[in-house]
Specification:
It is a single chain. The chain is an alpha/beta fold. It folds into 3 domains: 94 residues, Rossmann fold (3-Layer(aba) Sandwich); 111 residues, Rossmann fold; 95 residues, 3-Layer(aba) Sandwich (Rossmann fold), CATH 3.40.50. It has 16 helices and 12 strands. The strands form 3 sheets. Strands 2-1-3-4 form a 4-stranded parallel sheet, sandwiched between helices. Strands 6-5-7-8 form a 4-stranded parallel sheet. Helix 1 packs parallel to helix 15 and helix 3 packs parallel to helix 4. The longest helix is centred in the C-terminal third of the chain and has 18 residues. The relative contact order is 0.18. The protein binds 1,3-dihydroxyacetonephosphate and iron/sulfur cluster. 1,3-dihydroxyacetonephosphate binds next to loops. It is found in: Cytoplasm. It comes from Sphingomonas palmae. It catalyses: iminosuccinate + dihydroxyacetone phosphate = quinolinate + phosphate + 2 H2O + H(+).
Length: 332
């Protein structure tokens, strides 16, 4: 999408605040958004917390500063609300790696398996899944599934591999990856660790195993933030998208947070190109014109909602898979 023009001279921050009030809108932002967007959001969070906020808000409009699958999740959970995404091209490489027809065929190859699916996927793939997970809820949800139940896990093979190693479960993995977390370099990380002896590494489970092997903590974006808040030392190496460091620096200005490097030795290649498409200008236009707007056909929404409802229930620990009724889909 083109950058909106002729907004010169506008006080974007003030205009966004005015529109937010006029439209009874809530601005939800992911930790990977640019600092100026994080700073004006009503709520900044990880995928699970953003889903919960979207399900609970009484605003009329949700302006979702994140990527498309996150805004779609908000619409699936809150269909009566208008959901806008500043740039409709804000996709995700994990979603792209998992076309619904191929995922349905994969399911059909494993008829006894249930599909535990990472939230970073399309609404169609959610509709073909039994339970959605986020990186912060995956382990808790997995622990509620009987040990002898075969499980397909997609689309992130790194998160799936991490869960399999950590829990000893035998997961059938879909071969997708996040291009951002794949870009970290083990060689450069080891050099950085040598420069900062004693500094722990906190990594997102979307990182490949060669990076996770060097991590002192592995968790979701919120988990990494919580780890930073509690760590006794004064330097942390952060192996996830570097915009999350903004929250750390705001909360702990006297500590040092260093983005883990890619092959070129710095962390700029680990900026998510999809998240970066959202700008203040586009957010202003989205609130002004209520477009680009997320629309999901009702039949698809209801199919996708089932697996998201299962996630919200299991993530809060209130039910096991057996209590959720016949959530298995055939995949054909
Ligand atoms: P979190 O659920 O940890 O916020 O992760 C979302 C994501 O897209 C990471 O790349
Ligand atoms: Fe998708 Fe990776 Fe960007 Fe997260 S960081 S939105 S997984 S491309």
């Amino acid at each position: 999408m083109e950058q909106p023009t002729n907004l010169a001279g506008l006080d974007l921050r003030a205009e966004i605040d005015r529109l937010r009030r006029e439209r009874n809108a809530v601005i939800l932002a992911h930790y990977y958004q640019k600092p100026e967007i994080q700073d004006l959001a009503d709520f900044v969070g990880d995928s699970l917390d953003l889903s919960r906020k979207a399900a609970d808000t009484d605003a009329d409009v949700i302006a979702f500063c994140g990527v498309r699958f996150m805004a779609e999740t908000a619409k699936i959970l809150s269909p009566q609300k208008t959901v806008v995404l500043p740039d409709m091209d804000a996709g995700c490489s994990l979603e792209d790696s998992c076309p619904p027809e191929q995922f349905a065929a994969f399911r059909a190859q494993h008829p006894d398996a249930i599909a535990l699916t990472y939230i970073n996927c399309s609404a169609e793939v959610k509709g073909l899944s039994d339970v959605i997970v986020t990186s912060s809820s995956a382990e808790k949800i997995l622990s509620q599934i009987p040990a002898d139940q075969p499980i397909i896990f997609g689309p992130d093979r790194n998160l799936g591999g991490y869960l399999a190693r950590k829990t000893g479960r035998d997961l059938i993995l879909w071969p997708g990856v996040c291009i951002v977390h794949e870009a970290f370099s083990e060689t450069e990380l080891l050099k950085l660790k040598a420069q900062h002896p004693g500094a722990p590494v906190a990594a997102h489970p979307e990182c490949p195993a060669v990076i996770l092997d060097h991590a002192d903590y592995v968790g979701s974006t919120r988990g990494i933030l919580d780890y930073a808040m509690a760590m006794p030392g004064d330097t942390l190496i952060v192996a996830t998208e570097p915009h999350i460091i903004h929250q750390m620096e705001k909360a702990l200005p006297n500590k040092t947070f260093i983005g883990a490097p890619g092959a070129d030795g710095n962390c700029n290649c680990n900026i998510c190109p999809y998240m970066a498409l959202n700008t203040m200008e586009k957010l202003y236009v989205a609130l002004r014109d209520l477009t680009p707007r997320i629309e999901i056909e009702e039949d698809l929404r209801l199919r996708a909602k089932k697996s998201l409802d299962a996630m919200l229930a299991m993530a809060s620990g209130s039910v096991g898979l057996g209590d959720l009724g016949p959530v298995r889909v055939t995949g054909d």
